[in-house]
Amino acid sequence: MAVTDKSVLYQHGTLSLLVPGLFEGTMTIGELLQHGNSGIGTVQDFNGEMVILDGHAYQVVETGEVHELTAEQSVPFATVHFDDPKVTTHETKLTKADVEQKLLTDYPYKNVFYAVKIRGIFSHMLTRVVQKQEKPYPNLTESTKTQPKFKQENVEGTLIGYYAPELFQGVAVAGYHVHFLSNDHSIGGHVLDYTLAEGDVSIQPFASLQQHFPLEDPAFLKEDFNYAGMSTSINKAEK
């Protein structure tokens, strides 16, 4: 049954399943969008970075091109919510570090999941995009050794993503994990760095996390996860 509660964060798969290279799509975009109209993730075959805005799912591929995903395409891992910010403030001249610290300082949400959304003009934006993988899939560390990077100045667009408490490393990325898509689709992907020239910064905390597992995926069910090295692998690939 689809979740419509705006206080619920919905996640299909876990970030940890990407570590050994479980990149097979196990939920369709059509089904995923029943659980949220905003979010981030990756696509079948670990093929690029996904950005979900206003009920539309976009795939940024290694060439930098942006495609809208169809309902039939699938994802191994994604996190979504129904956009309903608790607070929105207009900010100017903030770096990535400024924004991240400001949200933790100004709001009492360091121990819960919350969504971050910034719509505005970025004087500097740096992203990267994972490359499509072929079967048999390599692990996360191998598959992220080469990641094309994209840089643009004075670009207008939307940053979307999440903060997760340290306790949930493996379920998600502990700390901030955000993606970007410009209004003209000229740049997007996993955000490495940015400077906000001017824009609206929104925060949406969640009372619940609904974790959905790929129960029909035999590879996931049979995998013996190496938890000892998992956090290191995630930090190398995602931060």
UniProtKB/TrEMBL annotation:
The keyword Lipid metabolism does not apply. GO terms for biological process: acetoin biosynthetic process. Its EC number is 4.1.1.5. It comes from the Bacteria. InterPro entries: Acetolactate_a_deCO2ase. GO terms for molecular function: acetolactate decarboxylase activity. Pfam families: AAL_decarboxy. Keywords: Acetoin biosynthesis, Decarboxylase, Lyase. It catalyses: (2S)-2-acetolactate + H(+) = (R)-acetoin + CO2. Pathway: Polyol metabolism; (R,R)-butane-2,3-diol biosynthesis; (R,R)-butane-2,3-diol from pyruvate: step 2/3. It is an enzyme of class 4 (lyase). Belongs to the alpha-acetolactate decarboxylase family. PANTHER family: ALPHA-ACETOLACTATE DECARBOXYLASE. This is Alpha-acetolactate decarboxylase. It comes from Loigolactobacillus backii.
